[in-house]
Amino acid sequence: MSAVWILGGTGRVGRAVADRLLADGTPAVLVGRDAARLDAAAAGRGHRTHVAAAPEAVAAGIREARPAVVVNTVGPFTRTAPAVVDACLAAGSDYVDLANDLAAVTALLDRGEDAVRAGRTLVTGAGFGVVATESVVAWLCDGTQQAVRVRTDMLPSLAVQAGPLGEALAGTLVEGLPGVPGGGRFSGRRVVDGCLAPAPLGGAVRSLVTPDGDRLSTGLMPLGELVAAQRASGAPSVESASSEVPTGRAVRTVLPLAARLLAIGPLRRLAARRLAAVTFVERPAPRAHSWGHAVVTWADGATSEGWLRLGEAQATTDAVAAEVVRRLVEGEGRPGAFTPVALLGTGLAEAVGGVYRRTDAGRP
């Protein structure tokens, strides 16, 4: 029980995480459905492979092999995570996924009691989005005063690789909200009085200037960092926003209609298929850095603002996932279900090259 299994081992993230782990001396097993693609992904890298053509076969393989850690890179995580987590808890394996949709992150955190009973560690959100914003909130909230309101902004600088979006990511984008309380099936969310409540998709637009001088607009998005920020701060009022959501007035007017259409099963499945086939042209990252940003309002009315500077967003995701796995292999986990910073602290971001910066005048 020493190897790390990486589900979705033929994908860009799976290969990158496996390479990072192997460079640190941690063997990885690439797991996927296609033997030829697995062999090609492992060629010249020294990785082992395991073919599992169906989710049931993946779960059976985990129970038999009992890997130290299983890394799930295959979305939509609301569909792929439950059976894999069950297998990990039965086999005595820790589990890590890269989810950043609100439904999947919430569902994994709800498995905390199961993880405690099994004595295993479950980690969700091991990627740029959750870690970038959760880290800043936790860094600002030092416990000396009660936070009453938090706003986070995710500002990725993302290089695009040529090729189709793919089924896994398309499924994650389309299926990220079903089952989440506090609003309609595909409406936005914010935290109000400690509970999830409706919010306009792309709403509450703010203009920000990063410490690098880049000007960006952000709008509300119901992503996993919403629940991560609420847990990190304990604030009863939380909003999470992203520069990746369209913030133009015309687009924001259309979004509610699109959300209602996605609630119709056949249209949702059609949208996922069409989205998966969208092909991108390679382009470099648009800015020098990615950023996590947060503003915390305290009970006395004072505010604190912080930034976390990170590298290109996809490379940061690869580094975060590998660092979380490495620490679990080294015994830094504990029984329960966590977001990465809740488990490993704000130093996790610094371990992958992050630099914190505070831009407010401080608190009295």
From TrEMBL:
Record InterPro entries: NAD(P)-bd_dom_sf, Sacchrp_dh_NADP-bd
Top-level lineage group: Bacteria
Domain Saccharopine dehydrogenase NADP binding: 4-122
SUPFAM superfamilies, alphabetized: NAD(P)-binding Rossmann-fold domains (SSF51735)
Residue ranges crossing the lipid bilayer per the database entry: none
Protein name: Saccharopine dehydrogenase NADP-binding domain-containing protein
Source organism per UniProt: Microlunatus spumicola
Lineage: Bacteria, Bacillati, Actinomycetota, Actinomycetes, Propionibacteriales
